[in-house]
Write a structure and sequence with these properties.
By secondary structure, the protein is mainly α. It folds into three domains: about 10-85, MazG-like (Helix Hairpins), CATH 1.10.287; about 145-220, Helix Hairpins, CATH 1.10.287.1080; about 225-265. The chain has helices spanning about 10-20, 25-30, 35-50, 55-80, 85-100, 120-135, 155-165, 175-195, 195-215, 220-245, 255-265. It is globular. The two termini are about 45 Å apart.
Length: about 270
């Protein structure tokens, strides 16, 4: 017997049932925007993790978990009379139509245009101009005003740098950001020599920001790059644990270095 095929309407009904004050789930009833926000971040990362691992068998499930977060917020919004799922979808469609005049020339969902000769650079310029108009309409006139503080630091650094670069505040070539990394590393060493803990922290931040500028300039995702480095370190360290004759805590540094070199050759 095939399992039932549910729809978005069924999901909305389920969420309303979970939040029903009389017959719902006690845990779901207690939640609010802030309490489920950490889960939203976690679910988004699990989607990315499945994609990077090419674990497409589980991507469907992870996308469902992420969608559930949206449904949860919209149910709370509906209960408070602020918004609901329908209004979220409607506003999203309207925004995307507005931001794609090269696809929807009349500003309506079903209008069309022959776009075969539109250059990607033209599309990007229009997109940024429209987004700036939207920021100004919200009273955010500064180019960096709406970059969320809650973004992961590497992602936020990249976004800040991209915004600045969009008005020409950028390096002429890759040698600029590379030289900046060298300069910041020297300043870290100077702060270390002075044993100034506050300066060390500040200079390390500047160094990380400068490294992100290299990834941004080369169009490499800094978060993805660091996640890959984390996975590589994890695999190599696990190799060391598996091939060590004794627990690593009882091994000498020379022994661990030999294991590390062997791990690098195996991965």
């Amino acid at each position: 017997m095939n399992p039932p095929q549910y729809t978005v309407d069924d999901l909305l009904y389920l969420m309303a049932r979970l939040r029903d004050p009389d017959t719902g789930c006690p845990w779901d009833i207690k939640q609010d925007y802030a309490s489920i926000a950490p889960s939203t971040i976690e679910e988004a990362y699990e989607v990315v993790d499945a994609i990077e691992k090419q674990d497409f068998a589980h991507l469907n499930e992870e996308l469902g978990d992420l969608l559930f977060q949206v449904i949860f917020y919209t149910q709370i919004g509906k209960e408070e009379g602020r918004f609901d799922f329908a209004s979220v979808v409607s506003d999203l469609v309207a925004k995307l139509v507005r931001r794609h005049p090269h696809v929807f020339p009349d500003g309506t969902l079903h209008s069309k245009i022959d776009n075969r000769h539109t250059l990607p650079v033209d599309v990007k310029a229009r997109w940024e101009a429209i987004k700036q108009q939207e920021r100004e309409a919200k009273g955010k006139t500064g180019l960096l005003d709406d970059v969320p503080l809650s973004l992961p630091s590497l992602t936020r650094a990249t976004k800040l740098q991209k915004r600045a670069a969009s008005v020409g505040f950028d390096w002429d070539d890759i040698q600029g950001p590379i030289a900046k990394v060298r300069e910041e590393l020297i300043e870290v060493e100077e702060a270390l020599a002075q044993q100034d803990s506050q300066a060390i922290e500040e200079e390390l931040g500047d160094l990380l920001f400068a490294v992100v500028n290299i990834t941004r300039y080369l169009k490499i995702d800094a978060e993805a790059s660091l996640r890959a480095a984390n996975r590589k370190f994890e695999q190599r360290f696990q190799y060391m644990e598996q091939h060590s004759a004794r627990p690593l805590a009882e091994s000498s540094m020379d022994e661990m270095n030999r294991l590390w070199d062997a791990a690098k050759k195996s991965h």
